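step=predict obj=Antibiotic biosynthesis monooxygenase n=92
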Amino acid sequence: MFVHMSIHHPKPGKSEDLIASMHRFGSALEGAAGLREVHTLKDSRTGKLIGLAIWESEEAFRAGVSAARSAVENDPFEDWEDASEGFWLSKV
């Protein structure tokens, strides 16, 4: 199992734009070989947005993620978020 997780810190008033982008990213992954599930989540306490994609393997992620990145490559993230963090997580 391999998990790609992103934590986004939206600027005030920009959460909906960022959520729409995250949904485009996730939709572009539909049908990718090795993708188990993908979610856009919101922390109700902080307003941070979490992107979570669970894959069969890191190799499947690497093979499938380029389509999703292309789907959002022109989105103005610098206008929508103060910061983001990305994690590549493997079960140990």
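step=describe
The first helix runs from residue 15 to 29.
step=end
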